[in-house]
Each structure stands twice: as structure tokens, then as C-alpha cells.
Amino acid sequence: MTVLPLTDQEFTHFQRFIFDTAGITLSPAKKALVSGRLAKRLQQFNLSNYSQYFEMLGSSAAPGEAQVAVDLLTTNETYFFREMSHFDFLRQQAKAASGRGAPFRVWSAASSTGEEAYSIAMVLADCLGDAAWEVVGSDISSRVLEGARRGHYPMERAAHVSEAYLHRYCLKGTGPQEGTLLVDRALRSRVSFQQVNLNRPLPELGMFDMIFLRNVMIYFNEQTKREVVARVLGRLKPGGHFCIGHSESLNDISDAVRSLAPAIYQKAA
What we know:
- By secondary structure, the protein is of the alpha/beta class.
- It has helices at about 10-20, 30-45, 50-55, 65-75, 85-95, 115-130, 140-150, 165-170, 185-190, 220-235; strands at about 105-110, 135-140, 150-155, 170, 180-185, 190-195, 210-215, 235-245, 255-260, 265.
- The chain has a 7-stranded mixed β-sheet with strand order 6-2-1-7-8-10-9, with helices on one face. Strands 3-5-4 form a 3-stranded antiparallel β-sheet.
- It is globular.
């Protein structure tokens, strides 16, 4: 069946849906993205227009489809060791925490497909070894979290992983799996993933020494940024560190942390 093009009115419906669900603001420039990412779902359900699909999202006829739509509209590709300066800073903090006894805990709050969480884990494994440390990765998308738990990636996403880390923490695919890598089982066992909607009250995650909330605030309006940052910082220990994307800023968003370096902040002790 031929699918009719996404109209401006239909796009407005999906803008409201994703804002109400995830707090994400879709600009008019994202209309083609919405159309492209949802088109296969319309074809799968033999629907001719996007209004029919939108109605399905609020219907009991297709339970779980709203989560599928959220997954499709919020997933963004990333890669290992993106914005390397944050991982250099993490290394410093992990070394400083060595031998203190208490577990060193890091939260990758918008972990997408897991590359950020595993990058954090590689640094902690290198610096802290078998000492007590933990990485928690979270995302609103259940689909990307399934992939994150598998830890299986195209090799091109590992361009910034050192040869030493590739050898120590990853298995290179051969034969049919050539061109891919699998994060080592031992490292995967130190990382837990949980579905979390940052636009809602947070589940019990415990407190963290360092939190990464990178390259996600660009999708929020100012009010949503304030609310999300306040929630997330509530999980940061006094004196803990908070990393955001280099294209992002906390100006007029939060006074609960002070700037230490570009895109790195510290909570008052």
C-alpha cells in the first residue's frame, strides 16, 4: 500500500507526542526524520497515512506500539570515547578514588546504544581493576538498551578506542562477524542498563560520583532542561562531577554545580 506523505498537521501530532512522552522538542527540520523512521511501521500495519498510525499509538489495539515509536524517534548513533577530554578527566577522578573503599559509581544517563557506558567501564577497569566500581547506563528506548546489553558493534564506532583497550576489552569479529566487535563478557558484567525516562520522576538508582548527560539537552526546551538537570543532579554525590556535551551549556539552567572545565561541572561538597 502506498503511504501518503506526512502532512504538517500530522507532524504536529508527533511533535506533541514525543514532547509529552520524552520531553524532546522536534524542530520543523525533523519532519523528514519522523516520516522516514515511522514509514516502515505504517507499511507493516498496512496503513495509508500517518494519522492512522498516530491514532494507533493511543489505542489498546496495538499495546507496546507507543514505545516502538519512542524508540524510533529518539535513537541517535554514537561511538566509543566521544569527546575524549571527559574520559581523560574520568581517569583522573578514578585514580584519585583508588583505595578509598567505597564503590566508584558512574551513570551514563542517556547511554543510547551503550558505547558511552562501555567507554566509561574500560577506563574504570584500567584504573581500578577489580576494586569496587559500577557503571549504570540508562535510556528511554528499550530497543537500544537491548542492543547495549549485547555489546556488539560495527568496528567503525571504535575508531577512538586504543589498540590496548581493543585487545584487553573487546573481541574482534571473524568470518561472518568480520568488521564488528563484541565487548568482553567480563566488562559487560560490570555495566548494568536500565530503562529511564529523564522527563519523569527517576527510579531508585543510588548516588553517583560522576554523571554523564551528554548531547541530549540539545533536544529539550529551556524548561525541560531545568527539570531534567535538577532530577539528574539529585543523584550526584556532594563533590561529584557532571559532564555535558561540548555543544551544550548550563547557563541559566542550574546553579547547583560550578564549572571546572569545558562541559565539566562539580557539585558543592
